[in-house]
Amino acid sequence: MSKTFEIDKEVKSRLQGVISIIESIDYKDNTAIRNYISDIAIPYLQNSLQNKLEFHNKNSKYNFIDLFAGTGGLSLGLESAGFSPVLVVDNYKAANQTYLFNRPFLNENKIISEDIKFVDTNSFEHTPLIVGGPPCQGFSNANKQRKKDDDRNQLYKFFVKSVSSVRPKIFLMENVEGILPFKNIIKDDFKAIDYTSEVFRINTNYY
User: Fold this and answer.
1) Active-site residue among 37, 111, 136, 160?
2) What is the CATH number of the domain that holds 186?
């Protein structure tokens, strides 16, 4: 089932790990599944990653840092507009692996798989933009047991700390509607580090 692709080394390195996992699976002589993966799935991944790499190399104009990045949904929109992630922080390793796999232009050492509370934000490189979505469970209307003193509600402060350390020109912090009652407190935290902030309530169904 091994295939050799004439593609960029960054893409090939991403694919090799996936191919190794697939080849280790016992398909119980199901040649249909094996052929589908070999002839359709792997080439699809190859073309997708190659296109992402070429798009990045052609269109990337501005750098940004993504905090609480998850698998990179917020980054995806920014990348389509010509922005490029240069540093990613999330404490969920599986999400970071997905983030890295889908971005063949990004080096593994630019992914920090640690709790942001213990990350030295002073080591962050300067970028014109910092983005991120601090954990929202404590604010979410879907959480029927939410409480004001939920420890997760304080994690946004580490976003503020990162902005204070890097001093970007702008920042974008995304969260759920349930955080709005705390907006003045959050705005005051940014004001304390000499940043003016505005809150926008949007319906993501339209984006």
Assistant:
1) 136
2) 3.40.50.150
